[in-house]
């Protein structure tokens, strides 16, 4: 029973399906193909066959195909009318090989839907609305494609300079937005038509390599000629590392580029193609791959778009025809107007329906993603896939909203890739720089090294650390300087020139980031911050003189001062002897003295003169008016001399500590005895020339007016000019180089504060894709403190001997022991002289004692010295016993002393009497009047 029931239901199902097939409405469609368009024909047939196999589709399509051998408008018109006479409800084609739109015009007049699937030169919107109302094109419009390329090239890739190679006018139309939008630097865009070099394509690539100095190329050409073009470009190193190619033809992947791909193709080659709908993973796969499956698998644009055009029309026709009560077949004549008939109304409804359908409303699905037809019958909504045609690796997806979404490549794809991606191999960067301390220098013993090992410096260490982080190799290219901009030729030299010509990939040195340079090269994040300051010469301090206290007066002044002292002393003695008031009673208790005494002899007079000039005074003073007048004038003289000496001494002792009067840029521009300048053509001179600040602009005008020129050809020349000028020249330079030279030369100094703020960065060609990685690596080095360590290593002079001098300069007005050493020497000399005189007096007294006491000089010396060393004894006897003789000798010596003393006393009395008588006799004769006066 069960088997019979199953057979019954199967039979019933077959009968119902056959009945439904018989009820399907038959719709005729036509297509026009050129020769050698077999793939399009296969796609056309496969699409309708798939639709007819859908049992519940309710329409059955019958196809009519016509073939045109050449592009002839008359033949094309005949074939179109022939299809219409067969009652077709739609016409597909022809491709863009047709140079006219005769099919669209006939379809527009008859009301037959016209399906297109290939690019054509677009007409204006007015013409589309008037003569192409029945045409629907499922291929993206050239305007939309051009906008997509703009989004990819400018926004996503951030290309600022590139060269466009195009093969046809249609290809140039696809790139129109890259030249028409004003945000692109038009001077940086170069156009080259490939067909202009058809005789020898090598001329084109040679010009691109040597004259254009380009590393980014946009190539629009037929896929069939792509391999030959790239093979020839390879011979001119246009497919080496750091070169970037963008292929704009949507069928570039269908070329045989993968077959010739090898290690010489290290350029980053990318292309675009229409994004296809992802296959349903649960769909049953075919056991046998047919030819049409291979065609669709190759993702060739025209066959896929032919398939989508068929799906779009079939679903729109089904929706309209089944909604009608009765299907009215199209008219079978091209000349409807001659018989007074209007165009086919159903066809207009089908075209309107096609403009409203989306990819979710059709069965089966479109091959391409995001199918949408606008009101003019053009496809303005679609998705593009950015991929690598060399390894068929998808990279990103562009959508009509302008967003580019990267695709995460599956690890399975990377593991199973048959062809390696040679563009991802470890690169070798050419690092361009120039000799400049301490960035790039030759080692002291560079003759013992080869290659890059003979170089050292901050730049060498920095690029080494970056290569370790980014895993790349590098080699140095040495040029003459950072780069100057020629205002006449608008050309650069130095590092900037090499980067513009793409002969180097990284520029590293004391390269300041400026707006002018950023128009021609890109910069990474800064690796060093700096400013501008003034380099000036620092004179050596005057050698310290231990007799500096003599400097306030000249030698002749000191000589005149000593002579004046002697003359005034003698004059004072003479004036005192003739003055009555200076003669005094030697014995105040004797009211009637027989003689007077004058105490102003030479020693006392000299002591008064010295005490006055030393401001110490004296215990005796003159009493007479003339003497007081003389002393007063001497005090006035001593006061003036001492005050003058004190003031000049302070000035002379601190003169070598006086700093320069130039302490800022303002002081520099307000004087005229010190010239100043900058490195000609550098960022510092550009800063002053473009500044709106009054002082900076004034400084720039002064620098330009100096003769001979105050500008230099390098920083090194400027530093040397400061050294040789010894205070007559100042050099404005960046603080980093300035501090480096100050650390190594004690005769250089920085004056003034930092002017402005600048930054050093690594320079790369415009749009270099590795700039971001370099910036990230620099930030990592900064966060780890590596940049600080490098600067400390190359800027700090650990053997610097200028620190002691710097500390001495900071002592202010303090005087050193050297400058006051002469004072101590005078003091020591006086002490030594006093001691020598004291010793001589002591020895003389010892000799006198030995004679008087009749002892040996040795005994007398010993006795006197022992007594002198007994500091606690305050009284000294008249006679000092030697203590070494016997008692007899002692008694003998005592008797001798007593007898001698008695004799001496007698003699002294007699002598005193005789002297007194003589004095009285002389006084009676010589000073009778003076006695009477007193």
UniProtKB/TrEMBL annotation:
Region annotated Disordered, chain positions: 881-934
Q: Which GO terms describe its cellular component?
A: postsynaptic membrane
- One example GO MF annotation: signaling receptor activity
**Disulfide-bonded cysteines:** 81-334, 746-802
Q: Which InterPro entries match?
A: ANF_lig-bd_rcpt, Glu/Gly-bd, Iono_Glu_rcpt_met, Ionotropic_Glu_rcpt, Iontro_rcpt_C, Peripla_BP_I
Which keywords fit this entry according to its UniProt record? Answer: Cell membrane, Disulfide bond, Glycoprotein, Ion channel, Ion transport, Ligand-gated ion channel, Membrane, Postsynaptic cell membrane, Receptor, Synapse, Transmembrane, Transmembrane helix, Transport
How this chain sits in the membrane, per its record, is: Multi-pass membrane protein
In its keyword annotation, does this UniProt entry include Transmembrane? yes
- Residue intervals of the Ionotropic glutamate receptor L-glutamate and glycine-binding domain: 438-501
Q: Per the record, where is site Crucial to convey clamshell closure to channel opening?
A: 662
Q: Which PANTHER family match?
A: IONOTROPIC GLUTAMATE RECEPTOR (PTHR18966)
Family under the similarity heading:
Belongs to the glutamate-gated ion channel (TC 1.A.10.1) family.
Q: What is this protein called?
A: Ionotropic glutamate receptor C-terminal domain-containing protein
Organism (species): Glossina pallidipes
Lineage start: Eukaryota, Metazoa, Ecdysozoa, Arthropoda, Hexapoda
């Amino acid at each position: 029973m069960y088997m019979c029931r199953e057979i019954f239901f199967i039979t019933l199902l077959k009968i119902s399906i056959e009945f439904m097939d018989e009820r399907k409405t038959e719709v005729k469609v036509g297509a026009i193909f050129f020769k050698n368009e077999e793939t399009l024909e296969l796609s056309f047939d496969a699409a309708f066959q798939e639709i007819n196999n859908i049992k519940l589709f309710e329409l059955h399509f019958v196809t009519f195909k016509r073939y045109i051998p050449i592009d002839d408008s008359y033949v094309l018109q005949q074939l179109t009318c022939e299809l219409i006479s067969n009652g077709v409800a739609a016409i597909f084609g022809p491709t863009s090989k047709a140079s006219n739109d005769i099919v669209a015009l006939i379809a527009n007049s008859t009301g037959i839907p016209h399906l297109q699937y290939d690019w054509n030169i677009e007409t204006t919107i007015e013409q589309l609305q008037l003569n192409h109302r029945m045409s629907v094109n499922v291929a993206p419009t050239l305007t939309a494609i051009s906008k997509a390329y703009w989004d990819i090239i400018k926004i996503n890739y951030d290309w600022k300079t590139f060269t466009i190679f195009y093969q046809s006018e249609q290809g140039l139309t696809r790139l129109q937005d890259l030249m028409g939008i004003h945000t692109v630097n038009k001077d940086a865009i170069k156009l080259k038509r490939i067909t202009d070099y058809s005789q020898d394509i090598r001329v084109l690539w040679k010009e691109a390599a040597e004259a254009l100095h380009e590393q980014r190329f946009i190539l629009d050409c037929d896929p069939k000629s792509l391999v030959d073009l790239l093979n020839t470009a390879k011979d001119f190193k246009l497919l080496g590392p750091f070169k970037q190619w963008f292929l704009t033809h949507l069928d570039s992947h269908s070329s045989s580029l993968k077959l010739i791909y090898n290690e010489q193709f290290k350029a980053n080659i990318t292309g675009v193609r229409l994004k296809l709908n992802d296959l349903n993973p649960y769909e049953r796969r075919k056991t046998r791959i047919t030819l049409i499956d291979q065609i669709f698998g190759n993702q060739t644009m025209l066959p896929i778009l032919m398939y989508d055009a068929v799906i779009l029309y079939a679903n729109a026709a089904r929706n309209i025809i089944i909604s009608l009560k009765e299907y009215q077949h199209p008219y079978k004549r091209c000349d409807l107007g001659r018989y007074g008939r209007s165009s086919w109304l159903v066809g207009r409804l089908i075209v309107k329906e096609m403009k409203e359908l989306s990819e979710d409303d059709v069965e089966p699905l479109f091959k391409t993603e995001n199918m949408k037809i606008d009101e003019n019958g053009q496809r303005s909504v679609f998705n593009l896939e950015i991929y690598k045609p060399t390894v068929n690796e998808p990279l990103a997806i562009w959508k009509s909203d302008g967003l580019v979404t990267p695709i995460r490549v599956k690890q399975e794809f990377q593991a199973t890739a048959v062809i390696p991606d040679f563009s991802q191999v470890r690169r070798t960067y050419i690092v361009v720089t120039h000799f400049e301390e301490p960035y790039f220098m030759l080692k002291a013993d560079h003759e013992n090294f080869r290659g890059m090992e003979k170089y050292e410096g901050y730049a060498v260490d920095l690029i080494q650390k970056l290569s370790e982080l980014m895993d790349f190799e590098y080699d140095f290219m040495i040029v003459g300087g950072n780069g100057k901009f020629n205002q006449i030729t608008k050309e650069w030299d130095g590092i900037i020139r090499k980067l513009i010509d793409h002969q180097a990939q990284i520029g590293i040195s004391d390269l300041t980031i400026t707006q002018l340079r950023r128009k021609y090269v890109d910069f990474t994040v800064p690796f060093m911050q700096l400013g501008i300051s003034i380099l000036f010469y620092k004179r050596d301090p005057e050698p310290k003189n231990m007799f500096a206290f003599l400097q306030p007066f000249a030698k002749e002044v000191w000589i005149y001062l000593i002579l004046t002292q002697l003359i005034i002393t003698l004059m004072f003695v003479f004036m005192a002897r003739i003055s009555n008031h200076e003669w005094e009673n030697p014995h105040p208790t004797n009211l009637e003295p027989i003689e007077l005494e004058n105490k102003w002899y030479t020693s006392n007079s000299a002591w008064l003169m010295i005490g006055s000039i030393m401001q110490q005074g004296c215990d005796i003073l003159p009493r007479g008016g003339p003497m007081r007048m003389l002393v007063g004038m001497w005090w006035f003289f001593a006061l003036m001399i001492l005050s003058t000496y004190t003031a000049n001494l302070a000035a002379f002792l601190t003169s070598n500590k006086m700093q320069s009067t130039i302490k800022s840029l303002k002081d520099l521009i307000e004087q005229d005895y010190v010239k100043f300048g900058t490195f000609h053509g550098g960022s510092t001179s550009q800063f002053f020339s473009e500044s709106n600040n009054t002082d900076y602009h004034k400084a720039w005008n002064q620098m330009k007016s100096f003769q001979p020129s105050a500008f230099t050809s390098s920083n090194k020349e400027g530093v040397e000019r400061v050294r040789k000028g010894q205070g007559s020249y100042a050099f404005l330079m960046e603080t980093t180089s300035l501090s480096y030279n100050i650390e190594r030369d004690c005769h250089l100094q920085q004056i003034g504060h930092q002017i402005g703020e600048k930054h050093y960065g690594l320079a790369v060609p415009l749009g270099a894709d590795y700039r971001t990685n370099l910036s990230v690596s620099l930030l990592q080095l900064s966060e780890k403190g590596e940049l600080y360590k490098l600067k400390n290593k190359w800027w700090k002079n650990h053997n610097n001997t200028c620190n002691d001098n710097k500390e001495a300069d900071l002592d202010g007005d303090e005087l050193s022991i050297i400058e006051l050493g002469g004072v101590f020497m005078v003091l020591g000399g006086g002490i030594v002289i006093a001691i020598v005189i004291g010793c001589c007096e002591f020895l003389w007294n010892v000799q006198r004692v030995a004679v008087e006491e009749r002892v040996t000089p040795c005994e007398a010396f010993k006795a006197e010295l022992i007594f002198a060393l007994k500091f606690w004894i305050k009284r000294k006897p008249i006679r000092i016993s030697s203590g070494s003789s016997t008692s007899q000798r002692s008694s003998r010596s005592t008797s001798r002393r007593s007898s001698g003393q008695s004799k001496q006393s007698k003699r002294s009395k007699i002598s005193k009497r005789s002297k007194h008588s003589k004095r009285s006799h002389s006084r009676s004769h010589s000073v009778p009047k003076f006695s009477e006066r007193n």
